[in-house]
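Hi C.,

You asked whether I'd gotten around to modeling the 161-residue construct. I have! Everything is below, sequence then structure, no commentary in between.
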Amino acid sequence: MFDATLWALVGLILFFVLLWYLKVPGKIGAMLDQQADNIKQELEGARKLREEAQALMAEYQRKRKEAEAEATQIIADAKVEAVRLADEAKAAVEEMIVRRTKAAEAKIAQAETNAVAEVRARAADVAVLAAETIVTSSTANKEVGDKIMAASIKQVSSSLN
């Protein structure tokens, strides 16, 4: 038994010597150092990506705020423009109403003038016809007829003026 234990110890020592001879601990250390460097590089890359993402996010937030401010300004400008256009339309409608009212008043005045002229002309015609009837139906002499005719003509001409 003592021999198996001794041979196991000798085998273990030879195993460790073989590992040391083949520089396995150095290679394992180098591999671990390489792995640590790879992890450091990945962490550095991730940090840089995070910073870039934060910068992009800040830029997009700034652009969003600018776009919101621009949209607000566009809405305000549109409201002002709408009020201005409404005021212009209202003024144009009022001006059109005034023009049409004046035109209607002018037409009414012209119609009144025409009606008065027609009434005067008709009255003159009636007066002349009445005077003719009186003069022709009257048995008075010619002088009386001439006086009545002159008076009727004078009266008709004064009423026409």
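If it helps when you're writing up: The mean pLDDT is 86.

Thanks,
B.
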